[in-house]
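Marked as duplicate of an earlier ticket. Keeping the data here for the record.
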Amino acid sequence: METTTIRNSGIDFIRTIAILIMLVSNTLPYFETFIPPDWLRLTCSLAAPLFIFLSGYSVHLSKVREGWAAFIPAIAVFLAAIIVDVVAWRIIPMLEFDVLYLISAGLFINIFLRNSPRITTAVAIIMMLSPIVSQQLHYRFEMDELSLFDPSITLAGWLRLQPLNRFLIDGWFPLLPWLAFALLGSAFALYKEKIMTNRKSILVLAFIGFASLAGIQLNMGLPSMRDGYVEIFYPLNFTHMLCSISWVGVLSLWLIPHSEFFLIGRLFVLGRKSQLVYITHALFLGWLIEGTYQPNTMVELTIVIALLFAIVLVVSTLAEQPRIRSITDRLPLLLKRVLGL
């Protein structure tokens, strides 16, 4: 089966921005003595909305065969999520529901609705309003983790932790309300021509909205960190959702219309290989840092982040080399998609 992906430097630029933020935010929890300033916590909270939004937008960048073949990207991301849980973090999968599970669910839904712009937009609006309802539901702030090598683990024990509730309400990235960003990405692509006709006005409004809402959050105090992670969306409240939507709108309206960026284009390999980067960074943190080495000073933290950046850049660059591609192109399509190749 042939899959054609339409490349856009603006999208690769946005993904690269999200990846750079992610590398920092996912490394900070290992520097346990560091108390991050509020501005850094807010900044680190802006990567996930970008990834999820672009996953919805990307549905309209690939032309695939009809039928089950259209869902290969969604299946591949789901399998990648399981691999990250099992291989990188060595935990029982489908319990904490990191961002890849959400992206996979969003891809399934957006592919199904890819020719229904009104339904996509309507569901996106409903998802945007869901924090109002979910605030009334029980949100388990503490995360449960089951080691892959714990011999006492049973299916009943896994079910007692209510993984469905984690997936819907209180996992790392629950469907409610995070699915809104994936649907908004698809809606943006579906209505792109109409949106771009009013690009400048919407861009100004989005920038004002982002600056205002970011200022409000910084002044009102940020929520506690969850298991050491610095992001402020545990849970995602309505204010930060609007702030993130404004942020996504600013970058999308500013960067997506551009086709070339000459000065820093070499870094865009990170955006083009975002899934490979995610898997690589999880393996780095899960095997080399977690339980093995803890940065104790800002200098050590900087070295760890720089090393992580260098590794993902080298891995991504190698993956695009002709000699490497001549090998990886022989792999089954699903396996290539799972590995982000």
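See parent ticket for discussion. The longest helix spans residues 199-220.
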